[in-house]
From TrEMBL:
Its main location: membrane. Belongs to the cytochrome P450 family. Pathway: Secondary metabolite biosynthesis; terpenoid biosynthesis. Coiled coil: none annotated. Its cofactor is heme. It is found in: Membrane. Heme binds at C486. GO terms for cellular component: membrane. This is Cytochrome P450. It comes from Marasmius oreades.
Amino acid sequence: MKQIVLPFDFLNGIHPWALAILTVVVLVGTYSLVIHWFSRRNPHIRDIQGPVDSASWLYGNFHQLYLVQPYGKFEYPWQEKYGSVYRIKGCFSEDLLFISDPAAVRYVLNDARTFDYPPNRMFIAMSLFGGKGLLALRMGGDTHRRIKNAFSPAFTLARLQSYIPTMRDIARKAIDKLTQEYLEKCEQGDSNVTVDIFQILQNVTSDIIGETGFGHKFNAVETDGGDEIARTHQNVISLGSSRTKSGLVADGVTRHLPRIILSSMLYLPTETIKTLHNFQKLTQKWSAALLRDDEMCTDATIVGFVASANKNQKRDQLSFDEISAQTPTLLAAGQETTSNTLCWALYELAKRPTWQDQIRKEINEAQGSESSLDQLEYLNAHIRETLRLYAAVPNTERVAFEDAILPLSQPLTTASGRVITQLPIRKGQSVFVGIASYNRNPQVWGPDADVFDPLRWLDGRCDSESLPGIGPYSNLATFSGGARVCLGWRFAIIEIQTVLSELLTKLRFKFDPDQEDEVTSRYAVTLLPVDARSGKSSLRLPLQPIQPHELDDY
Ligand code: HEM
């Protein structure tokens, strides 16, 4: 066959490695030129102060934001120094805006037409988790709206309360497991039994979303990890549980790559991509089979309820794929976020034995009465304070899809000395919403904003009238807001209330102050508790079962 010859074979003879290096150099060069050109077009952003002097060209400030433990070690002092709107650098010196100002945060979260996830991030989510999952869809678009509207009725208070007995049963299985572990360790002569509550809480929240969401029993608590789907999901979580410098650069490069290059990169034979594709294939098959199984997919489950209501829908009906794609999304968005919040709630309770006893007493007194979990003042104050200072998603990125003017709640002095009350933003500008920073912004929460003090929710310091009205729950940014607001926020609250109230009546959690340095946090997909010595996700707490007669004293 005649070979097709290019008119000028100028790459003839070049070594493949040299070609690869040349390609990378050309790509990175073009890429940084584009970023440089874009920042020159944004004089307003370049005039905003921030920690840019401490940024490196390659990683920007991202290594300080994401690789340092505990999370916030740099970010919270930045807020103190520069205020609630400042400029940071991304990879290759890209100018990014970081905001925790209430007016700016509210504006960015609520204007779905102008601000959404970076398009390439949605494209990656679409390719790896399935195209119709809520997290992969453009917010202002019709499909996102239809899916969110169809799923919202499955998350009403009354429906979610019907899941409490299932949540209780699963929590009780975890208590049995922990008690058994305690007794075994005692028999072996261990006088101060310590258990890792991180993994068992992961299993609890897997089982809860599996059973209530899809009518599927993962049996993760009983089998220490569950079936193939639960384990594959855990593999995906572990992949995301560490961040590396090369990962930061990869993130930086993929932000602006043309789609054609990005889509071919998603077929590279790396372990991460293989695991993600495997998760996608497995969950797609599984959720399609679930939806076809009338016995499993009853009205009592979240997905079954939506599927059944959808059949009678005249307008805005969802396709089979649109319903089925939400199964992995609900699993990915709802499981780890909730289990880590539970971990942090127990960590703070373990540090406060008297407060823990007070909550235990409150729960014990309410048992057998009609009062709902929502009426337990101390328990809910503790949950609110945990959600405030341990937001499971500490920041989220948005890109401006058109020019905009960002309102500011307080005047801001720029590097050149101008005082501004609003900030013009160009199309394409990245804005990081500092969820964790907003939740500890002294302008909103007072001078002791960074102190863990649940009583602030009981003594009038957090009266809703005095707070700016962000997010669906207690003015916290923890569940985001606007069109992208967390679909499962109410589910998460009920789940945390139920699991904590069960655990606290059967187990006492302790924390040795000498352990303080052993626990740290890392933001990798969610805010993880980490063992400072090994660097692994874990939370070891000394624990002791409570004998039934002890409860009489409360
Ligand atoms: C403490 C627990 C949780 C926290 C802190 C949390 C937080 C969040 C946040 C911050 C977002 C929006 C991210 C953004 O704006 O970029 C989000 C979205 C979402 N969450 Fe949650 N979440 C939790 C539990 C759950 C649960 C239990 C479910 C489901 C059962 C769930 C389902 C979702 C879904 C489907 C979305 C995507 C919404 C959309 O894109 O329109 N979440 N969550």
